[in-house]
């Protein structure tokens, strides 16, 4: 693991965007041998996406032969809902770059068979040869994608009930109303992310300091147990 410390969120975004662009350009992707990029939502990647758009407009990177797989999506939220991850990706990135929309993969949280949707997504990642670079953020409890505390390290794409902390954190996107936040999501698993050739996690803000400290300096044991208990207790609460 490599820890890259930058002074400001803007410098983090500059660094990560340049890293992604250098990787895509070094791979010289073609239609036969595309570059496979895993992508997150949330506030953490927004500035990175802005930089990618700027670089694309300046002609320093093309996404023509890039295939993307997003990490997660809410269950039951219409695709065109402003807070769906489909909408997020469209507005924050895909509408502004030269990606072929047929190369964009985002889990369908409205599929009639959610289990099948997850299995097919995992299989599709494998069928293109796996993810070259998975970009991610983390929640304050250290979760990646929607792999809430207690998620198995061997987990793959599946349906997940959201932790109370995540619902509270994400209520800011739903008029501050926890009742409007979907209770469930489809998410790639921890093993799905770890199977990528490279993983880059963007962590900014004091509220993420504890999660970062745990990830870097300690084995996630004691605290994980506390969060795990909290998660399972949270499942029982009613809003
Ligand atoms: N499913 C997303 C995660 O993928 C994201 O990393 C996390 C942190 O979001 P933010 O970057 O806004 O802090 O929020 C949600 O839970």
Give a structural overview.
- The chain is an alpha/beta fold and 239 residues long.
- The protein has a single domain, classed as Rossmann fold.
- Helices cover 36% and strands 14% of the residues.
- The chain is built from eight helices and eight strands.
- A five-stranded parallel β-sheet has the order 4-2-1-5-8, covered by helices on one side. The chain has a three-stranded antiparallel β-sheet with strand order 3-7-6.
- Helix 1 crosses helix 2.
- The longest helix has 19 residues.
- The radius of gyration is 17 Å and the shape is globular.
- The mean pLDDT is 92.
- The site of 2-amino-2-deoxy-6-O-phosphono-alpha-D-glucopyranose has 13 residues, from loops.
């Amino acid at each position: 693991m490599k820890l890259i410390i930058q002074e400001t969120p803007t410098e983090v975004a500059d660094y990560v965007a340049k890293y992604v662009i250098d990787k895509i350009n070094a791979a010289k992707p073609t239609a036969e041998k595309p570059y496979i990029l895993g992508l997150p939502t949330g506030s953490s990647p927004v500035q990175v996406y802005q930089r990618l758009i700027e670089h694309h407009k300046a002609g320093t990177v093309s996404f023509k032969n890039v295939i993307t797989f997003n990490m997660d999506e809410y269950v039951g939220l219409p695709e065109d809902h402003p807070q769906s991850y489909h909408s997020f990706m469209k507005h924050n990135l895909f509408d502004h770059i030269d990606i072929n929309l047929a190369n964009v993969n985002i889990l369908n949280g409205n599929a009639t068979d959610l289990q099948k949707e997850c299995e097919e997504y995992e299989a599709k990642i494998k069928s293109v040869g796996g993810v070259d670079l998975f970009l991610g953020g983390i929640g304050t409890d250290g979760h990646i994608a929607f792999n809430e505390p207690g998620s198995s390290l061997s987990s793959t794409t599946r349906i997940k009930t959201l932790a109370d902390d995540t619902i509270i954190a994400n209520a800011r996107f739903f008029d501050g109303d926890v009742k409007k936040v979907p209770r469930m999501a489809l998410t790639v698993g921890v093993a799905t992310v770890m199977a990528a050739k490279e993983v880059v996690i963007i962590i900014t803000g004091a509220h993420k300091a504890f999660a970062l400290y745990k990830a870097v300096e300690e084995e996630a044991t004691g605290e994980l147990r506390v969060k795990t208990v909290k998660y399972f207790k949270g499942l029982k609460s009613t809003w």
